[in-house]
Design a protein that fits this description.
Elements (H helix, E strand, L loop, with lengths): L2 E4 L5 H9 L4 E5 L12 H9 L6 E6 L4 H10 L4 E4 L5 H11 L2 E8 L6 H13 L3 E6 L12 H10 L4 E3 L8 H8 L3 E4 L4 E3 L2 E2 L1 H12 L1
Parallel strand pairs: 1-2, 1-8, 2-3, 3-4, 4-5, 5-6, 6-7, 7-8
Antiparallel strand pairs: 9-10
Helix pairs in contact: 3-4, 5-6
Length: about 220
Amino acid sequence: MVKVKVCGLTSAEDAQMVCNNGADFVGAIVDVKVPTPREISPTKARKILEIVPEDVEKVVVTMPENVQEVKNLEKMIDSDYLQIHSHLSESQLREIREETGRKIIGVTSIPQNSPEPEKIINRAKRIGEATDLLLIDTRGEGGGTGKTHDWEISSKIRDSLKTPIILAGGLNPSNVGLAIEKVKPFAVDAASGLESDPGRKDSRLVRKFFDKVGE
C-alpha cells in the first residue's frame, strides 16, 4: 500500500481530520523563505503536531540557510522527520541527522520542462543517499507549485535509489491514481490539491484522495 503524506497543515482540526482518514505522515511548514498560505509559526506547529497520534509520522518542513537554523528549530518542535528544502550539501544533511537525532526527508525538484534530466537524476541520487526519504517535487519558488512534472524522470530517480521516494507536485484526487501507476512511489504527498481555500484542507477532497490511493 502506498503511504500518504498530507502537508501544509494550518490547524489542529485539519490535522485530526487527515489522521482520521488514514494519513501516514503529516507536515507543518515553518520558517520558509517564500510566500505561502501554509506557513505557520513554530509555536503553532508544535501545538498542531502535539495532537497527532503516535502511529502517524510528524514532519517539520523548512527552508534553512544553514545547519544551525535547523538545530534551533528542532529544539522548538517535536517531530519524527525534518524535511529540508534548501541548497544544503549532502554532508550538511548528514550533520543535521546526526546532531538532531531526527530522520531527514531530502528534497529534489524537477522543472516542468527539463532539458537536462541526467543532472537532475544525479543530484537526486546524492541527496537520497544522504537522507532517509527523498521527496520529489515540481520546481518552483521553494516547492508547493501545485503543478505536476515529468513523472518519467521521477521513475528513473526511483529506479536509481535504495532510498524510498515520496512523490509530490500537483497531486490531487483526479491524478494521484495515474501518478502511482507511473512512478510506483513509497508515498505520495499533497497539499494544495486537497484544499478548497488556501491553507485549509477540504474533507471531501481528502476522502477522495485517500480512496484513489487505496484503489
